[in-house]
């Protein structure tokens, strides 16, 4: 179905497994460039309590039956399907005021986040339904009582209330970690651009990839939905601080201790280094970055640069350079390929930005751009929500207030001069917490002082200079592997950050008990748990035959002085502790010559490896290697190798097996311990 063919149309919500229109005709949503109606939005008549119940009763159980790898594969398939149909999203995105470049960030950036989480889920998480958090905590000397932290999916619903500026990315960056965690989601997009979110959700549902109830969509008001959230639910919000605070203090959220994550107003700063004088590469990079952040998405980004903090001696040159670049920005209908900046999302949004510019004018003067007389090369300057980029200058930012308190959510930024690095940090921190700050400098000392000063007040700090210029993702780009959020005014929450974002939708629980019981719950063997030694060598078993706790107790091998000297000469490792008896005795850790640590590991492998071809395909690593007791000539080594964890790979003929390796001496003391990682076939040939 081509939704563009019947504009304007009534948006529908996808709830309870069906597309449902609101009971009323709805509020018109207008094209940001022309003022023409795009769609009508309304959600009246929807039973919001039933929506939550549908997610909890249908979507949650279906997702929890899947492993992390299965959910990751689901996201991969979904991302690939959306990428194939991306041009349809681009075509509708122009109505939001987004250029092709703006839309790329929203559409392909969002789909890319989905695919990134799919990849991370397969690579970084086990193919299980329970996630272990940290190492085992021994609670008794005889290994009869221990504890392990685990993470399990919340058994409620994640309600995602999103902002208007990124109708695709804003949904997908929250949806990806939610689904990987095994929790269903309800998406509530901001009304101004909800038609693009609705289109993408339609295409998602049409794929049939997600289980029923895993994703629901509300187009319009959420009504009394938040009245019905419970302790197993989570709510995330992106938007204004005032709205976020109102939601955060909702009666049901407080009484039920509902997890609440907020990303709110953020007066992000960019700091030009004292070394970055006009004519340096860093000065030029700074001008380009500020210009880009002011004009991409018409400055309607939560990460856009709002405060430009620059050395006082360079401020005049900076204003001149920025004014020249901003003045060349082509403004108009984003459907026009020559246009580099489109309109704001709506006329109401433009009036909001103009009002905030008036507020900023209490502390600053406009030095570039006229907010009241937009100059466009296409589109309707009256009916469209166009606004020229506006640059202000505040000469005394240390005594100003508005420039540190007021955010104009559009192509607006204020230059603020400073004299010392300490003053630059102070000015940035007056924003009371931001999503991101950037520092442009080629001076490591300046970078250290400023970044460490900014870090407690920011979720992310980017350092820009000539070395990283070509590869840098820039000031304003949240990335799937990095946290997105910030303290204080920015909302105090975190999103993304790789697997950190997944854990937000899981409950951390400390499990205590006998090691055998813990192994049964967690799927990982730990010291003190039952083990099965004897019989067939564990390396002769396929994944279908191998069990957690299968164990090998090896024969012994005595380490000789000739072994140590041969290993030293063969490898070139002639460190004095291996070769010089008197020097080794002077070392407080040894009482004479000792064996190389890697000799111990090599001898251990010789003791436990079964040499014949079989189910074990490869050794691909060692984790957590520690040498605990020195090995002297004539010490005798023995290995206890235990199957610790089995992790089958989805859609592959093999899986990963983690082995606990304990190397002891003739006195029973542990001389080395580590995890051996092998790839093992799922079945014997």
TrEMBL record:
Keyword annotations for this protein, in alphabetical order, are: Hydrolase, Oxidoreductase
- State the name under which the record lists this protein: Oxepin-CoA hydrolase/3-oxo-5,6-dehydrosuberyl-CoA semialdehyde dehydrogenase
For this protein, what is any one GO molecular function term? hydrolase activity
Ranges for region Disordered: 473-495
Xref: SUPFAM superfamilies: ALDH-like, Thioesterase/thiol ester dehydrase-isomerase
Q: Which residues form the MaoC-like domain?
A: 548-658
Per its UniProt record, what InterPro entries does this chain match? Ald_DH/histidinol_DH (IPR016161), Ald_DH_C (IPR016163), Ald_DH_N (IPR016162), Aldehyde_DH_dom (IPR015590), HotDog_dom_sf (IPR029069), MaoC-like_dom (IPR002539), PaaN-DH (IPR011966)
Q: Which residues form the Aldehyde dehydrogenase domain?
A: 19-505
**Per its UniProt record, what NCBIfam families does this chain match?**
PaaN-DH (TIGR02278), PRK11903.1 (NF008868)
User: Which Pfam family is one of those matched by this entry?
Assistant: Aldedh
Where do Gly residues bias regions lie?
Answer: 483-495
């Amino acid at each position: 179905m081509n939704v563009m063919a019947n504009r304007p149309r009534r948006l529908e919500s996808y709830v309870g497994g069906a597309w449902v229109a609101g009971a009323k005709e709805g509020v018109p949503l207008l094209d940001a460039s022309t003022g023409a109606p795009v769609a009508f939005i309304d959600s009246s008549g929807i039973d919001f309590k039933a929506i939550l119940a549908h997610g909890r009763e249908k979507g949650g159980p279906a997702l929890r039956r899947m492993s992390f790898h299965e959910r990751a594969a689901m996201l991969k398939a979904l991302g690939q399907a959306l990428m194939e149909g991306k041009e349809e999203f681009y075509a509708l995105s122009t109505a939001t005021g987004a250029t092709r470049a703006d839309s790329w960030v929203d559409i392909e950036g969002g789909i890319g986040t989905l695919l990134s989480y799919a990849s991370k889920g397969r690579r970084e998480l086990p193919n299980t339904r329970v996630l272990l958090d940290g190492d085992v905590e021994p609670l008794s000397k005889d290994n009869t009582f221990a504890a392990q932290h685990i993470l399990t999916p919340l058994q409620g619903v994640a309600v995602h209330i999103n902002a208007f500026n990124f109708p695709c990315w804003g949904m997908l960056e929250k949806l990806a970690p939610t689904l990987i965690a095994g929790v269903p989601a309800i998406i509530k997009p901001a009304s101004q651009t909800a038609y693009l979110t609705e289109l993408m959700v339609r295409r998602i549902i049409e794929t049939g990839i997600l289980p029923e109830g895993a994703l629901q969509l509300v187009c319009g008001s959420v009504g009394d939905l938040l009245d019905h959230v419970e302790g197993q639910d989570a709510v995330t919000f992106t938007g204004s601080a005032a709205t976020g605070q109102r939601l955060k203090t909702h009666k049901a959220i407080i009484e039920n201790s509902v997890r609440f994550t907020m990303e709110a107003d953020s007066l992000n700063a960019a700091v030009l280094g004292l070394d970055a004088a006009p004519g340096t590469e860093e000065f030029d990079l700074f001008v380009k970055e500020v210009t880009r952040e002011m004009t991409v998405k018409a400055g309607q980004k939560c990460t856009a640069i709002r405060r430009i903090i620059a050395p006082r001696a360079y401020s005049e040159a900076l204003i001149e350079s920025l004014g020249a670049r901003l003045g060349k920005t082509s403004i108009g209908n984003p459907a026009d390929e020559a246009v580099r900046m489109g309109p704001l999302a709506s006329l109401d949004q433009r009036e909001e930005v103009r009002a905030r510019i008036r507020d900023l004018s209490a502390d600053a003067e406009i030095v570039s751009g006229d907010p009241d007389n937009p100059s466009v090369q296409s589109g309707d300057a009256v009916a469209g929500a166009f606004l020229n980029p506006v640059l202000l200058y505040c000469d005394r930012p240390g005594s100003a207030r508005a420039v540190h308190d007021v955010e104009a959510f559009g192509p607006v930024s204020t230059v603020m001069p400073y004299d010392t690095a300490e003053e630059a940090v102070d000015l940035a921190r007056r924003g009371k917490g931001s999503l991101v700050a950037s520092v442009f400098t080629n001076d490591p000392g300046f970078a250290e002082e400023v970044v460490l000063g900014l870090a407690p007040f920011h979720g992310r700090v980017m350092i820009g200079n000539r070395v990283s210029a070509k590869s840098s993702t820039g000031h304003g780009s949240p990335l799937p592997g990095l946290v997105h959020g910030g303290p204080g005014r920015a909302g105090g929450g975190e999103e993304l950050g790789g697997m950190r974002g997944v854990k937000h939708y899981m409950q951390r629980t400390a499990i205590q008990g006998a090691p055998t019981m813990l192994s049964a719950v967690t799927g990982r063997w730990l010291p003190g748990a039952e083990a099965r030694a004897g019989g067939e060598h564990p390396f002769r078993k396929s994944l279908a035959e191998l069990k957690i706790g299968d164990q090998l107790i090896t024969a012994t091998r005595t380490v000789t002085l000739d072994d140590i000297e041969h290993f030293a000469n063969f490898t070139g490792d002639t460190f004095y502790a291996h070769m010089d008896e008197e020097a080794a005795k002077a070392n407080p850790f040894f009482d004479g010559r000792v064996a190389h640590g890697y000799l111990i590991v090599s001898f251990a492998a010789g003791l436990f490896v079964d040499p014949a071809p079989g189910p074990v395909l490869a050794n691909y690593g060692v984790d957590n290697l520690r040498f605990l007791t020195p090995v002297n000539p004539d010490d005798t080594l023995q290995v206890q190798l235990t199957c610790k964890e089995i992790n089958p790979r989805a859609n592959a003929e093999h899986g990963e097996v983690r082995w606990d390796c304990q190397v002891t001496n003739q006195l029973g003391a542990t001389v080395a311990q580590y995890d051996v990682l092998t790839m093992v076939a799922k079945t014997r040939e």
